[in-house]
Amino acid sequence: MTTQEVANRLVELCRQEKHPQAQAELYHNDIVSVEDEKSGAPITKGMDAIRAKTVVWDESVVEIHSAFVSDPIVTGKHFAVTMENDITFNDKGRIQINEICVYEVQQGKIVREQFFYDM
Prior knowledge:
Number of helices: 3
CATH topology: Nuclear Transport Factor 2, Chain: A
Shape: globular
Largest sheet: 7 strands, mixed
Oligomer: single chain
Order of helices and strands: HHEEHEEEEE
CATH architecture: Roll
Structural class: alpha+beta
Helix content: 25-40%
Strand content: over 45%
């Protein structure tokens, strides 16, 4: 898959809230995920760790009030999307999260993701 095809598919699956499917289909086994330093777990490496992080996230969400994923902007082996979410969490209450997500693709798989956000 080209970077554009990976980007389009990721956006499609995220808009359907099928994040585990997106990871299984599009992520490389040695993926590196970089969160904001304030997250408590700024760097996650490998699919097993990514899956575990996703489970923790899913278990912390009480309700998704709204979710928006932009069309991707693609250049070379990178693409970016914006995501805007209104979510109620178990421990934090209702929060607006606006982020820019930047991805790197190699040989048709996402090898790195990095998130820049305000909460």
